[in-house]
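Meet today's protein:

…
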Amino acid sequence: MTQKKHQNLSDFLTDFDKYLIGEGTHERAFEKLGAHLVDVDGQSGVFFAVWAPNARQVSVIGEFNGWDDQTHAMNGSGSGIWTLFISGVGEYTVYKYRVFAQSEEWYDKSDPFGFAMEERPRTGSVVADLDSYKWSDTMWVSNRSKQQAFDQPIAIYEVHLSSWRKVSDEQWGLRYLNYRELADDLIPYVLEMGFTHIELMPIAEHPLDASWGYQVLGFYAPTSRFGTPQDLMYFVDMCHQNNIGVILDWVPAHFPKDGSGLNYFDGTHLYAHSDPRQGEHKDWGTMIFNYDRNEVRSFLISNAMFWLDKYHFDGLRVDAVASMLYLDYSREEGEWIPNEYGGRENLGAISFLRSMNEAVHTNFPGVLTVAEESTAWPMVSRPPYMGGLGFSLKWNMGWMHDTLNYMQKDPVYRRYHHNDMTFSLLYAFNENFVLPLSHDEVVHGKGSLLNKMSGDEWQKFASLRAYYAFMWGHPGKKLLFMGGEFGQWQEWDFSKNLEWMALNSSNHRGIQTFVKDLNRIYQREPALHQIDFEPDGFSWIDANDSDNSVFSFIRKGKKNGDFIIVVSNMTPVVRENYRIGVPKAGFYEEIINSDSDFYWGSNVGNGGGIETEPVTFHGYEQSLSLRLPPLGTIMLKLRSTKTTKPES
């Protein structure tokens, strides 16, 4: 255990700290508030500090004092921060704050800055030493700016830890894996599948499994469902040692009404607005943070910094950004209060997001911040000095909705919805986009990705493979939710295991092998990832062949002459002698074909490659006469500028 030594506790939480917290600019408030192991004048113990400005009195309670609120009353201050040093208590101590309101009421509260918590349904905070773990990821962290640069491949595997894979246990029956077991099982799987990143759905402590982690009780405490804080550190460390980045799903948009949490913390709406028109999400049954309050801003900005500092996460996917930006989000007329200019923009939230992003990018170069933002809010992924929100990346929800809508149509009718697949290229470079096929698309009756596809069983599998190849060819980084990589039939259920038994069937193994090969090609071919966010990286060959439901385009790398051709046929009809223009003469290798029999396809293709013909087409002097597979996508790469097929 590492023990911090402080001869004078006033040096631990200084007046300057209190000033910065009150100003909303303290980026490391977690080093000052909460429960910290200290050594004062030879006495070991814990220094407790909590912000509760409207409380009449606050006491620390726990088993160490029989949960008696008279034994360890805290000392108040003009800053609203209550403090107390208790000698003789140490790591793993369970505690709460008993907060006495100005009324006769009192509340037992978890520590807002608590570093660990008891496992649900208990809600006590736990004293934890976060500095005892010895990290071995120096090389990864030092190279992170390069590893996560915009010209690098980023293919994200989104995971809900408790339902990814379960194991039989003599004592507990079917149980989920802990952090260290996940390091042993999940990391090799992600490596085998060729993903570059893992995105963890929220793992901050939450009492309700059915919230999937999005109703956070302990913002600074990793859930104890899967082990200790050190166990989580080990998992991230092992990811880094295997060159896998880890993105955390972070939830600064709202918090639950649970009595032991932030809600009504000191007898007032301390962290939220008191007016429900500003302070409550009725749809979700949660409270909205008051981003105009400086101490709340310090709490949240410090929370972002905390996960990046103490747990070495490589990115934050920020949940529900749209709900933060708009005062009228999911509200009818009369249910919201306009801002000072009469508009519907949440000016406090905008300012907070900009400050958060500036703090992250300044202190942790190379770390990604990713916005789940579902509207057309401008410049989400542009710097604040340009008027943007400062995110690195933004989920392209429009692309996801449009293309899934297209893939659900019977191929007979797809010609009438052709623009659903092409419209995204009109705005693809307005933001730095991630193409997300996330958990949200496979729950609440929406069905699995495989079941969204039109047609019989063969057509569903073929369509999903063709769709994935179209996605991997499309500009933007990639995200796929677990289970999608092998075409799970059932929609996701947080309480159940993934349908791993499906891999006993060749059709599911085919999709899994295809995703694996897609990721290999995606990482190997610079043209598929180097220029994702600028028009120079993409050009249509033919965006308008709606009669045949065929899409053909070129992806380009930074090096002159480095390009990949992508052609998708979204009907179950083989297209013989389908001609497309190409930039250069020579032999084009078919580097992947979603209809290959390796992937449970019908094996229609071009014999591994095809030579150009001097026939002008699509504005090019050279062209290819292709055999397009049914419900298939092929990728072609120029291997030789000679007019004869090269030796194999």
Q: What stands out?
A: The two ends are 61 Å apart (CA to CA). DSSP finds 15 helices and 31 strands in the chain. The first helix runs from residue 15 to 23.
